[in-house]
Write a structure and sequence with these properties.
By secondary structure, the chain is of the alpha/beta class. The protein has 2 domains: 233 residues, Rossmann fold (3-Layer(aba) Sandwich), CATH 3.40.50; 236 residues, Rossmann fold, CATH 3.40.50.300. It is built from 18 helices and 22 strands. Keywords: ATP-binding, Cell membrane, Membrane, Nucleotide-binding, Repeat, Sugar transport, Translocase, Transport.
Length: 499
């Protein structure tokens, strides 16, 4: 049952927020309150209006209708700078730090303090260090941002807002690139800041996180407010159904029973940089083989090496009984291995090109066996795969305009069109809403049903457990065990992942 909280006496109050672009309404009549010292989870599928309402609150865009107040006073930011000046900041999912500047320089970029006509670097370092300490990050402020792990970069973004005395932070998919241990650390930071009176709007597709971190939940669908919950202790099924507008009986499809035929065998594989060592496993036709582990365990490095993207220092790879020594991705592709990378925007797609052109990349021999490629042939081939994978878009539409879920379907369409023997999916649903996620799961199950060998790497433990016939757990670059489906659970996997 939805419960509508009393209007906030202090903090942020949004009433009737709407946004229209010409005749198209993307947000209509949304009310949200965020009190000091609480976390309000903002949920919804891609396109539900989460980014729009967040952008309105953070001053990135102006509402077409509605009013806001902040600490009892009218609030109408004309820009992000206005919002920050009032104490409200937005931490984007895709961080916007400058990699070749130091931590201190990033924290104060565009507003460097001066002393006697020169930039006061001592003050910058002192203030940045104070905020990093407040967040529990023990690292020199003279460190270049490019040398930081993703979790630490995120802390720098938060520290940047804290130096501006932010009292409310909007966190957009803050754990999308984090593992379990780093997520726990982020939650500790949020709890610490909550006790200091800071409020949060927390946007995430990982519903298991909501009960852990949020105090209340707001659900949007098609630009409208469809659910408000005075507690975060709401069944996941209830939240999913509110988000998608229909009953969701099963998130994960039925698991296919693998065949006896072995497709891929890896023995004693090791990397030159020791990111993984002495890794051995096999995958059968029709099997989904999961790889679990915390960030830094060597999961991505391992699958990139199998796909020929990174070098191999030791060990062997066999495909259908034939040895493979990949020196490049082309070698692995020729042998029948395709990799759907974790960073679809930078590594899987050319965002400025159309859906049709992206699907066609690498598939020209199938589109035009004679070698003469025509626009009509590309369009026809793309349309077949758009229909097959349920992409919501047309062949001539720029792929950069699609939602994350539809972009991932385009990458899948491009890779699967090669008719591979082994499909490796690295973080296949990162940053994808729950409805599109279920569709991706169906595609993965269908690949296994067709007899392909499928490898799934994911930081989402429920995803690995729900999809896989067997799960290999990596920790510190080592294989800590391969568990059958009936043995794999949160406890058994995490015990090995933290060795």
């Amino acid at each position: 049952m939805n419960e509508i909280p009393e209007p906030a006496a202090v903090g942020l109050s949004v009433r009737g927020a709407s946004k229209r672009y010409g005749p198209v309404t993307v947000l209509e009549g949304v009310d949200i309150d965020v009190r000091p010292g609480e976390v309000v989870a903002l949920l919804g599928e891609n396109g539900a209006g989460k980014s729009t309402i967040s952008s309105i609150i953070a001053g990135l865009i102006q509402p077409s209708a509605g009013t806001m107040s902040w600490n009892g006073e009218p609030y109408a930011p004309a820009s992000p700078a206005d919002a920050l000046a009032r104490g409200i900041g937005l931490i984007h999912q895709e961080m916007r730090l400058l990699p070749d500047l130091t931590i201190a320089e990033n924290v104060f970029v565009g507003r460097q303090p001066t002393k006697s006509g020169r930039i006061d670097r001592a003050y910058m370092a002192k203030r940045a260090a104070e905020q990093l300490h407040r967040l529990g990050l023990d690292v020199s402020t003279s460190t270049l941002v490019r040398n930081l792990r993703v979790a630490a970069q995120q802390q720098v973004e938060i520290a940047k807002a804290l130096t501006l005395d932010a009292k409310l932070l909007i966190l957009d998919e803050p754990t999308a690139a984090l593992g379990g241990e780093e997520t726990d650390h982020l939650f500790e930071q949020i709890e610490r800041l909550k006790k200091e009176g800071m409020g949060f709007v927390y946007i995430s597709h990982r519903l298991d996180e909501i009960a852990r971190i949020a105090d209340r939940v707001v659900v949007l669908r098609d630009g409208r407010l469809v659910g408000t919950y005075a507690t975060a202790q709401v069944p996941v099924k209830t939240l999913v159904e509110a988000m998608v507008g229909r009953s969701v009986e099963r998130m994960f499809p039925a698991v296919t029973t693998p065949a006896d035929r072995e497709v891929l065998r890896v023995e004693g594989l090791g990397a030159p940089d020791k990111s993984f060592q002495d890794i051995s496993f096999n995958v059968h036709a029709g099997e989904v083989f999961g790889i679990a582990g915390i960030v830094g365990a060597g999961r991505t490095e391992l699958v990139r090496a199998i796909a020929g993207a990174d070098p191999i220092a030791a060990g062997t790879i066999t495909i259908d009984g034939k040895p493979l020594s990949p020196r490049s991705p082309a070698d692995s592709l020729t042998a029948g291995i395709v990799l759907v990378p974790e960073d679809r925007k930078d590594q899987g797609l050319i965002l400025e090109h159309t859906i049709g052109d992206n699907i066609a990349l690498g598939n020209y021999p199938r589109i035009a066996p004679s070698g003469f490629v025509t626009p009509s042939a590309v369009r026809s081939y793309a349309n077949q795969n758009i229909k097959r994978f349920g992409v919501k878009g047309s062949a001539g539409q720029p792929v950069g305009h699609l939602s994350g879920g539809n972009q991932q379907k385009v990458v899948l369409a491009k890779c699967i069109s090669r008719r591979p023997k082994v499909v490796i999916l690295d973080e296949p649903t990162r940053g994808i809403d729950v409805g599109a996620r279920a569709q991706i799961y169906e595609v993965i199950a269908d690949l296994a049903h067709q007899g392909l060998a499928v490898i799934v790497v994911s930081s989402d433990l429920d995803e690995v457990l729900g999809l896989s016939n067997r799960v290999m757990v990596l920790s510190r670059g080592l294989n800590r065990g391969i568990l059958d489906r009936n043995q794999a659970n949160r406890v058994s996997v995490m015990e090995r992942a933290t060795l």
